[in-house]
């Protein structure tokens, strides 16, 4: 398997091999953001890539949006897209998610969990837990399928994720998304996981 380091991901962007990128925010996350009231929530988007969620949040008046990705090209692309927004409202961090420290109310999951080596999943859970404030939550999408090839993306099942998260998070919601984009219909879970 390839080493899934910053060079690997950066080269995927440089070579136009970013097939995961929907080109816009996913419909489930858009619907979720639309009903959020607190515009000053500290929101983290890890492994954000072209970060369509960040653009959508800023367009909709959110004031504390942090994006982390270790691929330089992704952040370069994003910087150009954010020139019209108040720079006090967003933070772009080029770093490894697992090295990042901070305190957030909400972490948005969109095709990041499935991009990391499965052996790091427990680290993801523990690190997300550390990064969240009291009552903080992970909200987003996780694949509910096993891919017939070596990842990324790496899939999984609801049962596996319940086992993985339950020690550190209350599973408020983990159900098949009802409003997925067409190519992902029936293959992803919408999750709301509250920090214990
Ligand atoms: C499959 S892409 C998804 C990008 C974006 N969320 C989307 O849905 O278009 C995974 C992203 O995670 C980033 N990534 C992978 N491992 C990372 C890590 N340990 N720290 C920071 N970024 C990471 C990659 O550079 C890539 O941009």
How is this structure best summarized?
Strands 3-2-1-4-5-7-6 form a seven-stranded mixed β-sheet, sandwiched between helices. By secondary structure, it is of the alpha/beta class. Helix 5 links the parallel strand 4 and strand 5.
| C-alpha Rg (nearest Å) | 16 Å
Query: Reading side by side through the largest sheet, how are the strands ordered?
Result: 3-2-1-4-5-7-6
Main CATH class: Alpha Beta
User: Looking at CATH, which topology would you report?
Assistant: Rossmann fold
Strand residues, percent: 25-35%
SSE string, helices as H and strands as E: HHEHEHEEHEHEE
- Bound ligand species: S-adenosylmethionine
Overall spatial form: globular
Q: Give helix % range.
A: 25-40%
Structural class given helices, strands, pairing? Answer: alpha/beta
End-to-end Cα distance, whole Å, is 34 Å
Biggest β-sheet, characterized?
7 strands, mixed
Low-confidence stretches: none
Report the CATH architecture. 3-Layer(aba) Sandwich
**What is the assigned CATH homologous superfamily?**
Vaccinia Virus protein VP39
Number of domains: 1
Structure annotation, total helices: 6
């Amino acid at each position: 398997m390839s080493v899934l380091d910053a060079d690997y991901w950066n080269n995927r962007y440089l070579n136009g091999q970013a097939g995961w990128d929907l080109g816009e925010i996913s419909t489930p996350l858009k619907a979720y953001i639309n009903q959020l009231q607190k515009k000053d929530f500290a929101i983290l988007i890890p492994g954000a890539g072209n970060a369509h969620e960040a653009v959508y949040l800023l367009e909709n008046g959110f004031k504390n949006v942090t994006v982390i990705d270790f691929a330089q090209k992704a952040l370069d692309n994003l910087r150009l897209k954010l020139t019209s927004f108040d720079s006090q409202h967003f933070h772009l961090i080029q770093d490894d998610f697992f090295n990042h420290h901070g305190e957030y109310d909400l972490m948005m999951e969109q095709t990041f969990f499935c991009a990391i080596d499965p052996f790091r999943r427990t680290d993801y859970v523990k690190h997300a837990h550390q990064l969240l404030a009291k009552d903080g939550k992970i909200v987003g999408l996780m694949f509910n399928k096993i891919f017939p090839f070596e990842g990324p993306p790496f899939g999984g099942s609801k049962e596996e994720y319940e086992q993985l998260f339950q020690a550190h998070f209350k599973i408020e919601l983990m159900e098949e998304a009802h409003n997925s984009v067409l190519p992902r219909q029936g293959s992803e879970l919408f999750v709301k996981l509250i920090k214990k």
